[in-house]
């Protein structure tokens, strides 16, 4: 099942040279794990609900294990301080949905777990 590394980053107005070095070197850390950028630092084009005070990064991986192995890898761990010294943010690893995922089935399971009756 696919997995994603997702970051909501808050860069400073003026980027330091270390941030550029991080950006130049990150792809080499992704390649051994078949990671690829799906979104890279894009500000929200439209915030339709709530607020979004950051830049979004989404990196896709073929599996959760690959995402975890990339993040824990020595080459990527060495790069992290180049980013974190110059921008705050939140980073998470998350699994995607399986093929054939049906949100109505998830709703039914959640409803049943709460003791509710099936939807009419």
Automatic annotation (TrEMBL):
Annotated DUF1330 domain residues: 2-96
Name recorded for this polypeptide: DUF1330 domain-containing protein
SUPFAM superfamilies: Dimeric alpha+beta barrel
Signal peptide: none
InterPro entries in the record: Dimeric_a/b-barrel, DUF1330
């Amino acid at each position: 099942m696919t997995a994603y590394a997702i970051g909501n980053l808050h860069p400073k107005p003026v980027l330091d040279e270390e941030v550029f070095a991080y950006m130049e070197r990150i792809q080499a850390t992704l390649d051994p794990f078949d990671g690829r950028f799906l979104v890279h630092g894009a500000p929200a084009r439209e915030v339709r609900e709530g607020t979004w005070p950051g830049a979004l990064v989404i990196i896709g991986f073929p599996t959760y294990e690959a995402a975890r192995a990339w993040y824990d890898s020595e080459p990527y761990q060495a790069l992290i301080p180049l980013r974190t010294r110059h921008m705050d943010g939140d980073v998470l690893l998350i699994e995607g949905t399986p093929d054939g995922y049906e949100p109505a089935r998830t709703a039914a399971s959640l409803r049943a777990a709460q003791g509710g009756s099936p939807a009419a």
